[in-house]
């Protein structure tokens, strides 16, 4: 059988398993690249080559630094301080919650941020007699959009960067995502404050899933109620600032992944995290899913499977499809998929296809991949779209339709903002 057809068959099975989650996402990704190796599509040295990718190393290091922020209590202390200073008026409180969540989520776990702030917000709402639903949905929204600001803010950003690297193309810089992430975050924040909040239901705090909150905190590295050391808080904060500065300066001898790993090592050496806590702080699902799908992307490129998909899509849109229209269509596909499946899986599935389509019509793949990545992170419209959405479901007393009413207009707004800003920041030609 033609290697391209074999690759497409493996991709189709992976897509089905990603959507249904019959088996874990990381297992699906690793099984896909393993199958391509067994079937002779990929040489043995390339099957697991994704695990040595520098972006995987970067993500692993930043996971550890993020876990240190939660373990030392720094992230929670920053969030709680800002939220409490905002007072008990609904709109200023909402603005403070969203602003601090956007900032924290851009550099650390959005799930951990929501898990740490949610109990505090519920308590403030009960004391001030504000419906908890009015503040908890904005918390989840801010956590999702905040991740779009940096490369490590959300898995889709890492996925699209890695896909470009795997294809031998120029990649995105660590802060390059801020060109779209910052304006999008500001617009979503303002929309929520002045328009979106009118769509929010007025419901008192429901039953909080203590186990889910505890699990989310532990996953981010914030588990345990032991007294927090202010010294270690400062150390973890300084390490984060140092790493971010090193990345911003683009030092020749200190590439992004080296800076991240250096920061992770310092977190352990200084006692901000124990060795086992550092390992536990890494989101291994994202690491293995990313590495596995990098190898699948390589197979799609080498066998021509990606070109087959691209030619089919382009053929349906005419001989010379407008790149703006094409980007809009791909944004919609990615955004719709991410409402019902993991945003990581959505980006991993579409990134290599996006590159093939862009190359087939002779445009730069970067704006197309940026649109795919941002669309995958704009998961506002269903409770199962992202863990932050799921975490606030019970305490906010939300129904499925509440997410639809609030989230669909935000998805449309995100599409409009992206289609305007992305081609300006990353021209097609």
From TrEMBL:
UniProt cross-references to PROSITE patterns, sorted A to Z: NA_SULFATE (PS01271)
A Pfam match: CitMHS
One GO term describing the cellular component: plasma membrane
Membrane topology term: Multi-pass membrane protein
Keyword Transmembrane helix: yes
Chief subcellular location: membrane
InterPro entries named among the record's database cross-references: Cit_transptr-like_dom, DASS-Related_Transporters, Na/sul_symport_CS, SLC13A/DASS
GO molecular function per UniProt: transmembrane transporter activity
Organism, as annotated: Dialister hominis
Transmembrane region(s): 47-70, 180-200, 233-250, 256-273, 280-300, 324-355, 406-426
Protein known as: Cation transporter
Boundaries of every Citrate transporter-like domain copy: 16-365
Key words of the record: Membrane, Repeat, Transmembrane, Transmembrane helix, Transport
Cell compartments where the protein resides: Membrane
């Amino acid at each position: 059988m033609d290697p391209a057809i074999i690759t497409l068959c493996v991709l189709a099975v992976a897509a089905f398993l990603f959507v249904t989650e019959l088996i874990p996402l990381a297992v699906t990704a690793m099984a896909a690249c393993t199958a391509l190796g067994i079937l002779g599509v990929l040489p043995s040295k390339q099957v697991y080559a994704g695990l040595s990718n520098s972006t995987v190393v970067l993500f692993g290091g930043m996971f550890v630094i993020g876990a240190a922020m939660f373990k030392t209590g720094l992230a929670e202390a920053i969030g709680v301080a800002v939220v409490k200073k905002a007072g008990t008026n609904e709109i200023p409180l909402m603005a403070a919650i969203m602003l601090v969540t956007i900032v924290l989520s851009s550099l650390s776990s959005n799930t951990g941020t929501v898990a740490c702030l949610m109990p505090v917000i519920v308590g403030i709402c009960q004391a001030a007699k504000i419906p908890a639903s009015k503040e908890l949905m904005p918390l989840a929204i801010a956590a999702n959009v905040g991740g779009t600001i940096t490369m490590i803010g959300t898995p889709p950003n890492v996925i699209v960067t890695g896909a470009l690297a795997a294809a031998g193309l120029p990649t995105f810089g660590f802060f390059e995502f801020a060109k779209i992430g910052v304006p999008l975050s500001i617009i979503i924040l303002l929309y929520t404050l002045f328009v979106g909040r009118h769509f929010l239901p007025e419901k008192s705090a429901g039953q909080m899933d203590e186990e889910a909150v505890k699990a989310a905190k532990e996953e981010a590295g914030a588990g345990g109620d032991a007294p927090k050391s202010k010294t270690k808080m400062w150390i973890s904060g300084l390490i984060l600032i140092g790493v971010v500065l090193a990345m911003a300066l683009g030092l020749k001898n200190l590439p992004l992944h080296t800076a991240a790993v250096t920061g992770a090592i310092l977190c352990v050496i200084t006692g901000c995290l124990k060795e086992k806590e550092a390992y536990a702080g890494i989101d291994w699902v994202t690491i293995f899913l990313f590495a596995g799908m990098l190898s699948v992307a390589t197979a799609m490129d080498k066998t021509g499977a990606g070109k087959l998909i691209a030619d089919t899509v382009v053929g349906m849109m005419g001989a010379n499809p407008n790149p703006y229209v094409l980007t809009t269509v791909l944004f919609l596909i990615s955004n719709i998929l991410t409402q019902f499946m993991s945003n990581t899986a959505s980006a991993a599935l579409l990134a290599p296809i996006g590159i093939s389509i862009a190359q087939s019509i002779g445009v730069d793949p970067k704006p197309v991949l940026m649109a795919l990545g941002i669309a995958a992170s704009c998961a506002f419209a269903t409770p199962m779209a992202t863990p932050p959405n799921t975490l606030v479901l019970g305490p906010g007393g939300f129904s499925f339709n509440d997410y639809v009413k609030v989230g669909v207009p935000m998805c449309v707004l995100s599409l409009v903002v992206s289609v305007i800003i992305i081609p300006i920041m990353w021209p097609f030609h």
